[in-house]
């Protein structure tokens, strides 16, 4: 029941590329941005910054996921959450003005 040489898997190009981390990074930043939308938290600067970074990393993650590096769903979800986190505070400021 030990590990045999045939069970060993050598990392391929997709496993060691930094592009594989763009989607999960966008997802985490998008979640932070989406949580910052809550008016009780008052995290306007953090929400805008995390949202902008989530959109940037998410779009780059989508680009690489289409080429087979990384996964599409965390990049797309992070992009959407980041866009919501980035735009909602500005929409609220315009609505209050």
**Quaternary structure:** single chain
* pLDDT < 50 runs, ≥5 residues: none
> How much strand?
under 5%
Tell me, briefly, the overall form. elongated
Total of DSSP H or I helical runs spanning 4+ residues: 3
Q: How are helices and strands ordered from N to C?
A: HHH
Biggest sheet: strands, sense, closure?
A: none
Alpha-beta classification? mainly alpha
Helix proportion of residues, in percent? 55-70%
Task: Give a written overview of the molecule.
- The chain is mainly alpha-helical.
- Helix content is 63%, strand content 0%.
- It is built from three helices and no strands.
- Helix 1 packs antiparallel against helix 2, helix 1 (22-35) packs parallel to helix 3 (72-96) and helix 2 packs antiparallel against helix 3.
- The chain is elongated and about 45 Å long.
- The mean pLDDT is 84.
What labels would you give this structure?
mainly alpha; single chain; 97 residues; elongated; 0% strand
How do the strands and helices of this protein lay out in sequence?
Elements: H1 22-35, H2 44-65, H3 72-96
Helix pairs in contact: 1-2, 1-3, 2-3
In short:
By secondary structure, the chain is mainly alpha-helical. The protein has helices at 22-35, 44-65, 72-96.
């Amino acid at each position: 029941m030990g590990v045999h040489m045939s069970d060993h898997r050598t990392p391929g190009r997709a496993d060691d590329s930094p592009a594989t981390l763009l989607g999960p990074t966008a997802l985490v930043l998008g979640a932070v941005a989406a949580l910052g939308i809550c008016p009780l938290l008052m995290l306007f600067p953090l929400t805008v910054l995390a949202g902008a970074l989530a959109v940037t990393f998410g779009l780059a993650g989508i680009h690489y996921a289409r080429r087979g590096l990384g996964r599409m769903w965390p990049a797309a979800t992070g992009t959407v959450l980041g866009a919501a986190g980035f735009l909602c505070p500005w929409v609220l400021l315009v609505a209050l003005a």
